């Protein structure tokens, strides 16, 4: 593989300079706030239909224990990035249940806010419009608390999104081979893979984006593994990351610097 991050970012259509303003921005905000306070959907339907899934069932019962400190979790916010078909949506949902956190799938949020499916947004509004929606959603979800965020495959490729996400918290990147991605996506409708040779397209796009995905915080392989095992590895790796992060930020030099800054 061996991708050039600058080239990869340059080859993806850049989002428009101006962020979405007015109605669409308001609708994104409304959807996020509204959906977080809506009554929960039944768990069996939620994995398919959820946009922002509030805590439900077992998670809801566990949540007072988490907030009382009786049960600890490694992080209160985490995002999942990676190529199409690596399992971000499915694994993100399962991870959110395991950690008793809210769940946001950015593609589903855009679908809900725009009122069109992702292929319709690409076909009728164009990819740049979709990327502008993504950028607006990233700004919003970076401010959320207690949430697992599953991104679209291209979200992390754009530099401003990447910076906002990495400043907010850990970004777990899921990886899979082009063959696995092809098997997992061939019966779905991903606009970027609607070409004569989808496997070839997966190979070249993955190659372009690889260097950028490498900038994530934690990297986990998803080939030939059930999602429960992937979730377990992510949680273990998040614990290791959070221990190292706290050891670093609480070292005496860092505390002295932050004391001076506070004076
Ligand atoms: N670990 C896995 N093993 C087998 N199938 C998986 C796994 N993770 C995801 N899938 C399936 O692959 C397809 C794509 O997964 P999805 O979560 O939508 O990926 P992404 O959001 O990264 O595009 C879905 O049908 C999903 O159920
Ligand atoms: O890689 C990409 O640019 C895209 C990935 C898709 O999400 P998934 O990665 O969840 O399939 C979706 O956001 C859109 O079709 C574009
Ligand atoms: Mg997805």
Could you explain the architecture of this structure?
The chain has 263 residues and is of the alpha/beta class. The protein has a single domain (5-262), classed as Rossmann fold (3-Layer(aba) Sandwich). The protein has helices spanning 5-11, 22-37, 43-49, 57-67, 88-99, 106-114, 118-125, 127-141, 159-168, 178-185, 198-213, 227-249, 252-262, and strands at 52-53, 77-82, 102-105, 147-150, 171-175, 218-221. Strands 1-3-4-2-5-6 form a six-stranded mixed beta sheet. The longest helix has 23 residues, at 227-249. The chain is globular and about 60 Å long. Bound molecules: adenosine-5'-diphosphate, shikimate-3-phosphate and magnesium ion. Pathway: Metabolic intermediate biosynthesis; chorismate biosynthesis; chorismate from D-erythrose 4-phosphate and phosphoenolpyruvate: step 5/7.
Radius of gyration: 19 Å
Low-confidence stretches: 1-12, 14-18, 37-50
- Give the strand order, joined by hyphens, for the main sheet: 1-3-4-2-5-6
CATH topology: Rossmann fold
Terminus-to-terminus distance = 49 Å
Can you name the CATH architecture?
3-Layer(aba) Sandwich
What is the name of the CATH class? Alpha Beta
Count of folded domains: 1
Beta-strand percent range = 5-15%
Cofactor: Mg(2+)
Region (Disordered): 1-20
Pathway: Metabolic intermediate biosynthesis; chorismate biosynthesis; chorismate from D-erythrose 4-phosphate and phosphoenolpyruvate: step 5/7
InterPro entries: P-loop_NTPase, Shikimate/glucono_kinase, Shikimate_kinase/TSH1, Shikimate_kinase_CS
């Amino acid at each position: 593989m061996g991708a050039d991050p600058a080239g990869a970012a340059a080859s993806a259509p850049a989002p428009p300079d101006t962020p979405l303003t007015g109605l669409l921005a308001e609708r994104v905000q409304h959807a996020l706030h509204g959906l977080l306070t809506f009554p929960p959907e039944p768990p069996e339907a939620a994995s398919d239909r959820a946009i922002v899934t509030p805590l439900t069932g077992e998670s809801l019962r566990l949540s007072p224990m988490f907030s009382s400190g009786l049960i600890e979790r490694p992080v209160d916010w985490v995002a999942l990035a990676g190529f199409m078909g690596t399992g971000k949506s499915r694994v993100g949902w399962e991870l959110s249940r395991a950690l008793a956190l809210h769940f946001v799938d950015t593609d589903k949020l855009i679908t809900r806010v725009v009122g069109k499916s992702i292929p319709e947004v690409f076909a009728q509004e164009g990819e740049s419009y979709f990327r502008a929606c993504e950028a607006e959603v990233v700004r919003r979800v970076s401010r959320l608390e207690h949430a697992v965020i599953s991104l679209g495959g291209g979200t992390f490729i754009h530099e401003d999104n990447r910076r906002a996400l990495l400043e907010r918290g850990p970004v777990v990147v899921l990886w899979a081979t082009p063959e696995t991605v092809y098997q997992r996506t061939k019966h779905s409708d991903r606009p970027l893979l609607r070409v004569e040779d989808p496997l070839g397209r997966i190979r070249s796009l993955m190659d372009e984006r690889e260097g950028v995905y490498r900038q994530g915080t934690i990297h986990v392989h998803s080939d030939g593994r059930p999602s429960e095992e992937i979730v377990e590895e992510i949680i273990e790796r998040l614990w290791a990351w959070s221990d190292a992060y706290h050891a670093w930020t609480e070292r005496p030099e860092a505390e002295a610097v932050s004391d001076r800054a506070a004076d």
